[in-house]
Input
Amino acid sequence: MAMMNLVEALNLALDECLRERPEALIMGEDVGVDGGVFRVTKGLIEKYGAKRVVDTPLAEAGIIGTAIGMAAAGLRPVAEIQFSGFTYQAFHQIEQNMARLRNRTRGRLSVPMVMRAPYGGGIRAVEHHSESREAYWVHTPGLKVVIPSSPRAGRALLRTAILEDDPVIFYEPKAIYRAFKEDVPEAPETWPVGRARTLRDGDAITIVAWGAMTRPALDAAGELADVHDVHAEVLDLQWLKPMDTEALVASVRRTGRVVIVHEAPKTCGVGAEVAARIVEYALDHLEAPIRRVAGHDIVFPFFQVERFYLPDAARITRAVLETLQY
Amino acid sequence: MPRKTFDIGLVVEELSILDESGRADAALDPKLPEATLLKMHRFMLLTRKLDERMIMMQRQGQMGTFAPGRGQEAVQIGSILPLRSEDWYSPSYRSFGAQLWRGWTIDQLLLLWAGYFEGFGLPEGVNDMPMSIVIGSHVPVAVGLGMSINYRGGDQVVLVNFGDGASSEGDVSEALNFAAVYKAPVIFLCENNGYAISVPFQKQCGVRSLAQRGIGFGMPSLRVDGNDVLAMAAATQEAVDRARRHEGPTFIEAVTFRMEMHTTADDPKVYRSDEEVRRWEKKDPIMRFETYLKSRGLLNDAGIDRVAAEIEEELRVARDRFAARAVQRPEEVFDFHYAVMPEELAAQKREYLADLQQALAEGK
Output
């Protein structure tokens, strides 16, 4: 066991995969000599060389497009897009080739690659460095989408994503890159694809969150227990595609109430799909309307006021109490 | 001297071996084996006749919208000639000739363009990519294939085919840049057929030759008479040899002309004159090649007729095979999305199959 933050845990997962799998490689802007702008790939070029840790030209479609080609040829590229706000430049490659090469070759070729990108607000960044657009990828057939919420999860899920034979979008909650440390086991872990995990048990209400939003969700759950004697279950969805419908339904059957938390804009955010599934499969167990504590349908605010946009423990707590009083 | 010409070490060369009357420049003639020349001729003729047949079938409602390639047969067959089966070939949607050469069966191509998913199956024994629909999007992927060859070592190459319209796409520029930076063994075959649907070359870009694009990214580039199959073969062979020697990518602009509509859904009379089309008829690639073959005593009119008759028979047989294979398989639409189908998708499939059964029962 070793205590480490999310950046260190992701670095460890990459290191382990490169060591074990000769077909695995890393590519992206500044991932080599610089070690990545968030230092997630720090030290790897020294260990594995420039052939396996590739500093690329500054061109996102080029990065994702060539990674797709390498994956189709049997390699296992982990392509970093420096900020998720720059993935738009590669959108068409993800949609047209990454997600569907298996289909458009009737299974002859596959794209076992990972696109890593830091997402989300809360780091006082310039424009286009803070948005959460995970819903785009959830909408695209052929992709898998996962977001870790802690160092141990980050190391396990990145390894899982790299070993998957399908393309995986791996979004990293940069707001918690270095926010806290967690014990990470000695041996590498893979976690099942499409499984949520319970971060805190409770019976009064289910709070569904993922990525960085699990932190205010846990804070709210703590306050609800300490101050209001309300025991909320916090479910970390982790995989947005495929989604753990079973875990959602099981939790709602126990609690009967749901608050969904995400920082992406509310309309057609992944929370809408979560709510839809709960209504489809557990309506009879609902005792109150589903509430969404989400970002708003606006351009992500400049960082001086981003704290008013991002869901926090206070907003979550209020939504929980209102849902309980329904 | 404060101001002087900066030598970038690259110039655009132009290559043509057969003149318009079919006479070869003896010094440049690649001197291909006779059997190869006759095979090339057969595939050029097959490509044209398949086109004609498919247009007819489309007009009769037996074929979906597709992109005919009459006039571009020399680009297709000349460029594919130097490729080995283990090399990668990444076609555009107007690459029938090269695809036939690579081993696509006629019935497979008919299935694809008649809207049967089975048509997407790639031929065995070659490393082919599926044809590209979204313009230029396959070019960075092709460069990635080239980078994988460098990663593993070996002397495979990648040939990627795209058009003059695609040259405007950012993807193509990014791909050229990556290939140049990593010295990827890629041959960029830019088939300049004069028009991107209705937009003529002169309105597509501000360069006199698209070969400048390759130069701009730092790779050797060649402007080739695309209606001259010998020039296409020689130019591509040179580029393939360079790539196999690990000397990196080459850009080839093949100057040709799209004699037909963009697709069967297009009416070219709206944007170009008959006179322009007639000018290009005189440069017909098959006619020129046949003149050459005749001058070398390899083929005569009777021989050409015999080949044509054999092709007609081949097409007839292939059409029957296509008709037998043209079976709707609505139950397979969920396949080939993931290595293992996730449960949420499997649940949708169960629902779909139940609906399908209902729809079929109702005679939909």
In short: The CA atoms of residues 7 and 40 of chain A lie 5 Å apart. The two ends of chain A are 45 Å apart (CA to CA).
